[in-house]
Design a protein that fits this description.
Strands 2-3-1-4-5 form a five-stranded antiparallel beta sheet. The longest helix is centred in the last third of the chain and has 19 residues, at 114-132. Helix content is 28%, strand content 30%. The radius of gyration is 18 Å and the shape is elongated. The chain has 161 residues and is an alpha+beta fold.
């Protein structure tokens, strides 16, 4: 007998059975940061990214990423997401700028949406990088983390940074 939730009696991976869990409203918020140079920031502000507006494309990609999470993370359940939204904020850094990406994911279901929020931020950041790499490849994607989650048996979690 093993004590791992994602392993069956034979010691092989399994998807956890959530059929007996209660349906609750679930929300997760995740954040991440991308560092960018002054040159790249100026190009974005002036509409100088040849592929188009990197934030619009990153937001669409992030939404798609949230919806595709169970295709990427093996033990995630397919979830009927009921909302995915983003906030983007540029801040001046010691050197260059930082883009802060925040995704909020919501559903009413039997399992949480933390992985969907984290995936949404990750895919949005990767897409932003792809949109802007022709101008500057020195961007750094960093600090992707769960800000908070609510709902379910474990209740509310808040990451105090």
């Amino acid at each position: 007998m093993n004590n791992f939730s994602h392993w069956n009696e034979e010691g092989r991976p399994k998807m956890v059975d959530i059929s007996e869990k209660d349906v609750t409203k679930r929300t997760a918020i995740a954040r991440g940061t991308i560092t960018l140079s002054d040159e790249l920031y100026e190009a974005i502000q002036k509409g100088g990214i040849k592929k188009g507006d990197p934030l619009q494309v990153a937001q669409i990609a992030g939404i798609m990423g949230a919806k595709k999470t169970p295709d990427l993370i093996p033990m995630c359940h397919p979830i009927m997401l009921q909302g995915v939204d983003f906030e983007f904020e540029y801040t001046k850094a010691e050197s260059g700028y930082e883009l802060h990406i925040q995704a909020t994911v919501k559903c009413t279901g039997k399992t949480g949406v933390e992985m969907e929020a984290l995936t949404a931020v990750s895919v949005a950041a990767l897409t932003f990088y792809d949109m802007c790499k022709a101008v500057d490849k020195r961007m750094v994607i960093k600090d992707i983390y769960l800000v908070q989650k609510s709902g379910g048996k474990s209740g509310t979690f808040v990451h105090h940074v």
